[in-house]
Write a structure and sequence with these properties.
The protein is an alpha+beta fold. Helix content is about 40%, strand content about 15%.
Amino acid sequence: MEPVTHLVAGLLTAQTLRPALPPTKSAARGLTLLCAVAATIPDIDSLAGLLGPEAYLLHHRGITHSLILLPGYALLLAWAARRLGAVPLQLGWLAAALALLSHLYLDVATTFGTQLFAPFSDARVSFEGVFVVDPAFTLALLGCLLAARLCRATPRRAHALALCGLGLMLAYPLMGNALRLGMQARYEALLASRGQAHVGVSITPDALAPYFWKVVLEDGDELRVTTATPFDIAAPYPVLRLKRLDRAELLRLGEQASFFATYAWFAIHPAERPAAALAENTANAQPRRERRFLDAVYVITNPVLVSIMGSKPGFAECAASLDQSGRLLAWRDWNGRNHPVPEAGSGPAAAQAAPAPRP
């Protein structure tokens, strides 16, 4: 989830635990600060993006989001809060652990997934119940928080409102996942009624979920991406047709630039846009071709987003520039930056050839 929702979840945690504190302003402020930091600090791994797109894919929602290491992280934060003389160590540990758990839970509820068992496993866990940015969800949590803060003069009411906020935080993604599974079953039944039972279906939250949902259909070598709503599962939304991409192709390119081996590990539904026309390399007149890769779950299909963003590349969309023999000459990330690939495999760290990392 985006940072605001994580922060609000942390503040709701602090408000819920406030009755267990010593009745001092410094203790209340210390608990609030501790929970706010604990609920947001796992995303410090976003700084990996400064090292390049490959580092971001590898490390975002990695070790800082580990369920296994969470008790140690909570202890470190509680110790820091205790050193400031604000919160007792045991209560601080509980508060930090709950705030950290709220962060992990909200991230696991999104499509991107989270490496909960790092460093022992790089598997990304997700149950896909909510889109990464959900304004209605965030505003509802914020409403509970503000109501609890306004009722501080009545501690029991403030505590109940904070608990309601945390209950909503838990329930909303679960309800979204239940809706998603129901829609998937309905879509499979729809395909079966059309004689297309062989087509695989994957439904994930899209912007403005739970109204809009992204549908990825796997049909042989083709991927079709479209939109569905729970009110009309068969509504005729536009369909984007893509070529299904074999991960072996990405791993082959990964022998020349490690980014593509990482991409093979990361992508849920790797796909390729239609081949680009041949272009000329003006430096040596050597013909080259471009292959455009993407993960179908991050394609922009929502009609609202399409009207706003147009044909901009989606997250994790990249391109490989190859010569006629298939050698990788350069690649371009989703931010539009180009990364040359020298013949010997040396060069910028983001483009160096290396053993395939965790395919």
